[in-house]
Amino acid sequence: MPLSQFARAMVVAIGAGLFSLTPAAAETLAEALASAYANNPTLNAGRASLRATDEGVPAALSGYRPTVTGSASAGVAHSSSLGTSYPRSVSLTIEQPIFAGHRTENAVKIAETAVLAGREVLRGTEQDTLLDAVTAFMNLVQAQAVLNLRNQNVEFLREQVRAARDRLDVGEGTRTDVAQTNSALAAGQSASAAAAAALNAAIAVYQQVIGHMPTSLGRADGVDRILPKSLDAALATAMSGHPLILAASYNVDIAAFNLKVEEGARLPTVGLSGSLSYGVSSTSSAPSSSASLVGKVTVPIYDGGLAAASVRGAKETLGQRRIEHDATRDSVRQAVISAWGALDAARAQIVAANAQVEAQQLVLSGVIEERKVGQRTTLDVLNAQQDLLDARVALVSAQHDRVVAAYSLLATTGGLSAERLGLRVARYDSTAHYQQVRDKWGGLRTPDGR
Predict the structure, then answer these.
(1) pTM of the full structure
(2) pLDDT at 8 over 80
(3) Containing domain of residue 351, as a range?
């Protein structure tokens, strides 16, 4: 949608009502989040990745199951004594593992734990996507509000240019006043053009994250009601439930199970092998058949040090995962503290910005009246108007920052989800596909029919 059409469609209130927009059909923040949850390609790619991880479990379970192979052969043989014959045969072989040094058992545990870790990674991707959607929504609201303020400023400056020229015509003003107002107008128009460009960029990001072009934006409900009541509570919630911490914990478990798999390579393996065959040889025209069932025990004695090196490497990897788990906890703790401080700062900035706007409005009104009686110059009016504009833009930024900071704090505690926000959208069940494929013994089609 062209910028001019979007600007006409979107109604943005400035000041205290910045986030309470009037069109009945306007898209609210909750609706934008629901759209991103359903349509965002990054999030959908994460869901596909988890489904691929689910398939690791039936792959690992295949280690308990028999493998069946068949073969057939046919040919022509000729000898001077026997003449020409046509040997042919078919055979069927079944291999059933019985004991593999606990490697199959631990491989299944690795696959199952990888699924749990993958679910936490997906939950983290969901949080990132929803936070990106909040940021895109609020950036668009902010960009439109700033553009409106810039345009209002341009209209004010045009009126000042006309007033300066009128005063010059009647001998009450100077050419300097006209030049000053023209200069301020040019600067205001430049700032307005830059704000229009920023709005276009915000629209592009909105479409990328939310999944469609914006028309008009509605209210942005806050999440203060579901935020932790104290920094200590926020830290406790994050340490126990943040997806990055839980995924790192599962990665430690995966490394521990992998160590057991590597250690199992040094243990004996036991299996059964059965075979059936039927065929005609080149030396006899009479068919023959055979059947066998063989048990086999394999004891590793020396492999050149390969298994020992693998075990040592697995131990180091386990140590690495434990360190990464500790580092993740530290990183999350730092993020929670930073987000808590940012939210406190944004709340204070709104109070200060509101007071500044009220004061600057009085200042501008007073300077205009004083100029009428010759106590102030045109430059004083222009400076007062610029100060008021800066105060209003600061208020818009503070209101934007407060909403984003609140959602960011919720994300750092691990609580930013469609369920927690009560979004009206079909929830993605990360366990459904797992249950569908876990015990599959075969089949090439995915559960959705592909």
Answers:
(1) 0.85
(2) no
(3) 3-65+102-266+304-420
